[in-house]
Amino acid sequence: MRMIVETAGGLIVGGLVLIGAIVSILSTFGLIRLPDVYLRAHAATKSTTLGVLCILTAAFLYFWIYDHYASARLLLGIVFVFITAPLAGHLNVRAAYRTDVPLWERSVQDVLEPVLKGQRKEDGRAHD
């Protein structure tokens, strides 16, 4: 029975590492190929976060199955990455938008303009 659990665990751990590596590689292609800072930030935060979470989950499962050790550090790392990476990406994009980094010329919708237009008038800044 133990051998079956370790074999299935090895397949799950290997699959998660493989999925995490593939998703991380795809996000690097997004960083290279996408045209503006907003789309690149989307590729960097969403895809890389998923890739890192898969790899950290695989590491947690590995230690749990093979060493019979539930690592609190890995669990905290998973929670920390899950919370902070998307938030940091959102704040970076918001800062880029507020400093007037231009959208890609083919962008069809700017959902923040109506919201921030009123704030800019209140702050005394002109909007282009």
Strand content: under 5%
In round numbers, the mean pLDDT is: 85
Instruction: Kindly state the number of beta strands.
Output: 0
Oligomer: single chain
How would you characterize this protein structure?
It is a single chain. With 128 residues, this protein is mainly alpha-helical. It is built from four helices and no strands. The protein is elongated, with a radius of gyration of 20 Å.
Short structural summary:
Helices cover 78% and strands 0% of the residues.
Question: What's the layout of helices and strands?
Answer:
Layout: H1 2-33, H2 37-66, H3 72-98, H4 113-123
Helix pairs in contact: 1-2, 2-3
List keywords for this structure.
128 residues; 78% helix; single chain
